[in-house]
# Entry
Amino acid sequence: MKLEITKTPALLVGDDLTILDLNDAAITQLMLQVEEVKNQPVDQCFGFPEKPSVTLLRTWAHNRVTLTIKKLQAEVIILPQEHNHFLFLILNTIPLEAYEQITPAEQVIGSWMYNAKEHTFQFSNTCAALLALTEKTAVPLETLVQSIDMNDRETLISTFDKADKDKAPFHLSLKTAHSLDSTPLQLICQGTQDDTDKVILKGLLKRDIYSQVLNCKLHEQNESRKRALEGGRIGTWSATQVGTQWFVRWDEQTCKLLHEPLDQNYGDLDKWISFIHSKDADEIKRAIEHSIKSKENFEREYRCVLKDGNALYIYAKGVVSDNKQTQTRCLDGVIIDHTSIYEARMRLEESNLLLEAKVKSRTEELNQAVKHAEMASQSKSEFLSMMSHELRTPMNAIIGALDLLTHQDNSFEEQELLDTAAIAANNLVSILNDILDINKIEAGKLELDCYDFDVSDMLNNIIVIFGPIARQKGVKLSLYESVDIPIQLNGDENRIRQVLFNLVSNAIKFSCNSHDQAGHVVIDVTCEQVNRLVNKLILSVKDDGIGIDNDTLKRLFTPFTQADKSTTRRFGGTGLGLAICGRLIELMGGEIIVNSELGKGSEFIVSIPIWNFKPREHEVIFSSANIYHHIASEHKVEYLVKKLQMYIDDVKQAPLEQIVNIKSEGDELSDELNIVVITAQDDIRTIDANSLPSGRLLIIYSLNMFEQLKERFTNVMMLDLNTLTFFTLHKYLLCLKNMDSQALLELNEDDFEVDLDFELDASMQSNTQVNTVTHAGNLPILIVEDNEFNQKLMVKQLSRLGYQCELASDGMQGLKMWKKGDYALVLTDCHMPIMDGFELTRQIRTEENKSAQTPIPIIAVTGAAMKGDQEFCLSVGMSDFISKPVTLDKFKNTIEKWYGH
Amino acid sequence: MDISNLDNLQVLNEQVMLELLGDDTSEINSFRQQFLHQAKSSLQKIAGFYREQQFKQIKDEAHYLKTSAKAIGAERCAYYLQQLEDASLELDKAQCKSHIQSLSSEIKGVFRACSAQT
# Structure
């Protein structure tokens, strides 16, 4: 037996109760000398409560006993060894004095007296409490014995038997029967109470509180661990390999988990494996063997089959350790019952599968729905495209016919009716265009066509169109351009204009216009820098109209939405305009904000990012100018002067009356520019038309007094202050600068018409105001058109323009006529029965290629208005494209462009 | 100025007047205006001569206007005036008619170009 393997003090005792050996720890910690201890009787070294014997030691085996060694009290475990040897392991020691002096806080001490004659005890209160006894006096020895742990009873009885005789002091370490605490009580006999009467023995009963607390804690922790393992359904196991033999042990909890008897908690590896499902057993066995061999930790999931046939899903884990003493390798581990987790996982997987199936089915439904929606959308697009063509073709006839009629000598009433019909027809075409636009936008087919343009020119366009409309409705229209708006910016002018058209048109439409107060629409255009590269063009349109409620505001940009049905009845419209505006602005990367209050009016603010632009720079047209005015508002004056200063270096201001004193002398044209601003009726009266200076004079007026001024001041250039744009101002100032060429304005294009032929139909000449050029004698134009009315209309229009025509009612007939005849150009409809215009073009081009002929200009005349349609026409070989309705001017320009090429 | 190839010619080549007069805009405009007045009158004369089939007069009037057209840079006008001169020399009435019509159209083009610049 090698004692050195432990650091705990240890002594080996032989069967003759002599000390055979002791380790270094015993020498150092117990301060023993080898020669004074070795081969000496054990009771010479240790103080025993009774005479030691092999039998006594065997009864103490594996238990803790309290012995004294030198002046120490020692806790000793006696472990039986081979050849009737005993190993004394000294677990802890405390000096006897210290033990005696343990403070009451650390020890509980009771006292007792024993009558050796009557074998009865007198206990102090503490002593009775420690023993859990209610009696304190004349307590029989038997009662004490019953309160002591079974294992200690024999020792107690024999000790008191001995004490009855020798009355000598003794010291016993006992465990009580009642306590869960395994800490022993120290029963100490101090000898007889007095030397004269040797019948009464006295003594103490002590319990070490510290040790008791420790034991309690240990017990609690063990219980807690046990409960945790039970709760977690965790069992422990240990597998050791000794040579080829396997020893596996497992705990009570494992037995419970595996439904095995509690006492059958050990066996070889095969027994352990026998609990495992046959399909998993081999793998687990190999894994355990592998772990032991490789020292890698063990971790597996497997199934166990219980005796009742149920399966457990086990998660097992083990850690390998080496036992150097025994030269063995051990795998200590746990098994955790994962059945509930597994079942939950299975349920989860099932539910996942169900969900996946549901998602799949929903996705299919959704795809189907998307397909249907796309088909519906495509059908809608096709329908709209077709409708556009079908409606625009008769509209072409109507507008064309009205156009022709307006060129005749009509009475005032007839002309009024014709104008009304023309406006209605043009409105209908606008609605068709709106429907096409929204359709294109929603189909994502609308592309922006960006190029450089002058914002001020565009604004002037708006003013030219809406000025008369606003005047007619009695609405005042004002425009403010900030000085920083660029002279040129890159963007889709047509689409920006379309947005502004819509907003201004709505503002005028909804503007308040009562008897006592005229409505007012204000267009405000500014440009703001966002960062070094990007600026923002801000267009604001404000009215004082009916306003919009909050609910309507939210759906204002939804197609076919107006404030309510009464709005449509009262103001008309399709409700497409704002939806188109919203989408167009979105497409340009901008935003639109609406501020509105019911009954007070609305303001639409559009901001569009711009990248490529050219700032408006100072351009000197006049070095100086005098401006005569009575404007009270400084803001208005400042606005006007700032605008003028863009083109005039020095703008001098003077009161209006002074204009009469600067009349220039002689016929010489003065270089000086005089600007008269008239903002009130009194201003007109202030100045005498005859006293105005001749030469370069510009009248800028506000209020609705154009007609009045025109009557009073003839041959003077006039501009409206409220709608003054940079574009018009620049144009007028240039014109004033080039007064020499003023005469040019007296010429017009008609002056350059020539009449070379007297063979024109006299009746046609008599009822037209249009000067026509005849192309008789030149090659005729081939018209390919299936609609009879359109045929007639086109022939009439072309004859007005002096061209001869021949007619074909479809592509096939057109092709035959082209082959036989000689034509200057072909005008063809695109959609026709038998052969359409595209096929006709392809065949003509093929024939021309074969015979190396010069290509004849082929111009498409069609109701389709999509950008793509035009591209398609050109791609099949057509030379140009005219969208119906075709006015005389449109025909004239296009045919002049191609005729004779 | 080579006026033999129509494809290379401009309605109103502004560079011509700039080279003649420098950048005096009002002076240039004045010359252009005079040309247009002259053209109006000449064109009516040429039409009259055509109706009366006086080819020699057509040729002379065309030649007269051609000089002015070249001066202000009305290159396409000058081309048709040259064509008209040639056709009238050959007494080809149909060609004359065609060229007069083309000339009318080109002068309108010059008018539009001048108007756009004033």
Notes: Residues 101-105, 663-669, 741-745, 758-776 of chain A have pLDDT under 50 and may be disordered. Chain A touches chain B through 26 residues (CB under 8 Å). Residues 450 and 492 of chain A are 4 Å apart (CA to CA).
